[in-house]
Amino acid sequence: MTLFRTGDVLLWDAFDSGQMAYLWNWSTGALTYVPSADNIFCSGPVLMTDGSVLVAGGHAATGVGIPDVNRFDPVTRTWSSLAPMAFQRWYPTATTLPDGRVLVVSGVTTCFSCTGDIPELYDPATNTWTQLTGAQLSMPLYPHMYVLPDGRVLYASSSEAAIQTQALNVATQTWTVIDPSAFAGGSSAMYRPGVILKSGSPGAPSRIPVATSLNTAYVLDMTQPSPAWRQVAPMSFGRTFHSLTLLPDGNVLATGGSATNDPSSQPVYAAEIWNPQTETWSLMSSMQMARTYHETALLLPDGRILVGGGGGCCGAPDQYNAEIFSPPYLFKGVRPTIASVSASIAYGSQFFVGTPDAASVASVALMRLGTDTHQFNRDQRYLPLSFTAAGNGLNATMPANKNLAPPGDYMLFLVNGNGVPSVASIVTVQLD
Asked: I need a labelling partner for 120 at 20 to 30 A (CA). Which of 22, 28, 66, 280 fits?
């Protein structure tokens, strides 16, 4: 699932219907069929700086990828083909960089042991790909990649294996080991610039022995002089195939998962929220449907979370449906409102946010629109902004460092002292 500034969510289904893409509008409920030319299941989707989604690779057969790259424009609602990659890729990860280029890593080519271990870099200005042969590295499928405040790309975890954490300098094509210990984390999220939470177990259905899901959670602070993973309080439930979703109050939501790394095992229905201040989890209400392998979750502009899908493999129940979770902050009083804000924001600028609720606002944050598949939301990120009261609103300051918020579309949230968020305004952080 991918959220666009138009209010639409692009979604598509599993192996046998990976061309059957749809747009669902979160505010009207309208569903529109927008089929793709390729089977884009098992692909690596990511939002580009112009608000379109790049979809790298896809599904030829189980364990066999395609080199095709597709682009969907949410305004014209049309697909187009981009230049193909050098390698077939099935289950790769794509990451938009601060200069607008897109990094693609991992994914298998023609068999489960045939890894696409040479990263490729896409330049949308020239519609060309460059192989980063100096950065060759074999990774498990769907690695969790994050642009750090210093511009490097962190390889923090993987949806399918516990890994040694490393960081890539794209310019020099060199990897640096951050933490040599392999700590599990089936889902992860960068909840503050350079600070990552990961939790639960990775899972590779039918390819590893069945084991009880872990409830462990770890934090890595890449802004520290000697960063290393630090264990924090565990979740209430062990989870494999779950999703971590950032919330506008700065907390992190965990949804879905299963009791073992077999997707057909007992589902975890209850949600949990992690508080970065206390570093503890709080149990939330339960979903109605089992959401294990292939679950997806997206933060919507109104502060609710769309949770959908699940199944499509290995005996797990197929879920052709979605549910919406309303966090506790929606029941804590009146919401602040955004009356006006510029449609685009420049790095290093101060911009005005019109609001009648300026006196009650406790935090202002930019949150990138999400793109989620296979327990990893590669686009979501949370950037707190400094602000001051100004007349009938606030003056907020956008940092000059592009690495903190790669260009593209973001939700701007105001949150009051009770932790209640506004409905977001969609703004574009300019490339130049």
From this structure: 22
